[in-house]
Amino acid sequence: MVKVLTNSERKPVHIAMFSGGAGSAYVAYHMVQTHGKENCRLFFTNTLWEDEDNYRFMYEIADYIGLEITEVLDGRTPEEVFHDYKFLGNSRLAKCSEELKVRQTLIFLEELRDKENLEPILYFGIAPHEKHRRGPIDTNSIDKNIQKAAGLRSFYEHFPLEPIETRFPLIETIRRDIDAKGIIQNEWGIQLPRMYTAAIKEAKAGNNELAKRAVELGINGFSHANCGGRCVRGGLQHYATLYAVWPEQYKEQEEMEERFREKFEKDVSILKRNGKAYTLKQFREDIKREGIEKYLLFKDETIPCVCSFS
Q: What is the topology classification, in CATH, of domain 11-187?
């Protein structure tokens, strides 16, 4: 008879949920310094829509830390998932994240337990906005990053076959405020992903007047790098930024949305306005008619999915 080990009997393995952002990169470094390379792994779920510069950043960070990246992928793009389920992802429900990231993560974690007798402990690079906050995660916090962390902890306590421990060093254990971006760029000598400063780059390039306006309004780039700017969890500000900075990517997403609507003959959209479908085509037309300024300053209420960079 094969003995089934419990989580307390398995050897712990520390896993950084590697998302391509400064927060997760610094947490990965902190994890390795604390527990040693031999007890750690970098884990990345690839949606096939990632921005090309995220790959560059991740591999440079992996080289600096001294660990290889464990990459898993479903093989489908988010659009293919939408068509398979006949459901277009939006800020409220994103089957792409569920299938391409969460499902693949759970499979990987259970295989660690079943095949390698390892007990995973997950590390996330989520940081609080409130600089004075430290200690246990308060599920009642008004801070959305803390809410997201609490949601992740609850998920991994209930959905795997056995609960999986989650850790958020930037919130719980590091006792000083960390300028992860500054450390990575100035001390480690690694250029940050271009999505942080995409608007600045496009504004300097020459004739992108919308990017110049975004920078004037304090929008230097994207708040997260999900799917190279095409994240369906993004709101009005996110897509206004995408239109200003990378209009070709906006066009690709608009065309993807229109293909879905035509194929399934459904009045659905990624964005919502006044409780109704609000297509990217409509949004683009409104931007041209009303100006982009108010949308660039619009405060999105959506919380990016697990892979968000911070």
A: Rossmann fold (3.40.50)
